[in-house]
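ok so I'm stuck.
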Amino acid sequence: MKEVKVIGAGLAGCEAAWQLAQRGVPVRLYEMKPQKMTPAHHTADFAELVCSNSLRGDRLENAVGLLKEELRRLDSIILACADATRVEAGGALAVDRGGFAAMVTEKIKAHPLITVEYGECSEVPEGPVIIATGPLTSDAMAQAIHRYIGGKDYLNFFDAAAPLVTYESIDMEHAWFASRYDRGTADYINCSMSKEEYEAFREELIHAEEAEVHGFEDSKVFEGCMPVEVMARRGADTLRYGPLKPVGLKDPKTGREPYAVVQLRRDNAQGSIYNIVGFQTHLRFPEQKRVFSMIPALRNAEYVRYGVMHQNLFLNSPGLLDRYYADLRDPMVAFAGQMTGVEGYVESTASGWLAGVAMACKVKGEEIPDLTRQTAIGALGYYISDTSVGNFQPMNINFGILEPLGYRVKGKANKNLAIANRALDIIETIRTTESEVLHEDHH
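replied:
not stuck anymore, here's the structure
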């Protein structure tokens, strides 16, 4: 049977390698550490957690809780090791960082079908291959990927994203749908602010605490996408001539143009998630929540992603990858992990799981399990391959990208639980089929 190359032994690469090997497919796993390190990595172990040691919330009413439960049921190595090295952290799954990475490394190295090779890769090899080199991919490999995809539009070296909020958390008492001068369709949600509200907001924005710039981030690139707090410092009305300009927008409640208007733009096809237009920011996450909640319509806004500005390598995946993370031009070349536009440890793991399982099926001539948008794993694959998403940016799992129920459920937690239970029913069906496949492979 054909050997599959997996490049990068982070969360996604380890998960992909494990799923391939568990299905009887030989794997050659390439890892550049410890020969070459990145500014964020400190050990030679695989699956090193470079930021927090938390894999976030564990309850099913929480989208990442559902994603973890799906992965658990589908025999994810990352989740098995995380559960085994768990440390108490309230309702979150946090792990002993060193113990977790050591356990993943040990299991991967002990698998009879996985061969580990150390050293930096600087070319995209012929398939079958899964590239999971992460957002801090080495320069040589980044250039190789750039050459391979053949277009600068597909590669972002800098991540400047405005925050995203859920539609259902916007207070429409203080907002209305309209486009400027009523041109075209009423696509924007307009959040009005009075003079007093605007001035108080700007004052807090100017003095809010910014996130520190890490050593491996490039401060030179900030000019092209100016943070909203920098604009606020440039003058009392800079924001009112920029992203908060009220021109051409009449508040239906007063019939007049407000003093300032924050616009929200739909961020997904379903209209369940909205982008705060022009709010690229370098503020710390708690500060974003505190200051932006001074906008009356966003008083109780639920954030599915905070604004971020940092150097980050990710592919502009829609139009480049399919929902199994494979190249649309060559299905035997796939990508996985944060470089595909999924954000977070568990999301990276999920992309590795799906890319690995799909590649195993292709190598063996079997049917790929159909993870629909009704599952969290499937919804992420659909998100990164959805060409209707404008200004594609990395995203965490959230219920906004899963298929809606199609019927009403009272209370948000109940609704989320109903979505989660529907997803787990589908996962159970897939698990039964997968168990049969794995059982055959081990005999």
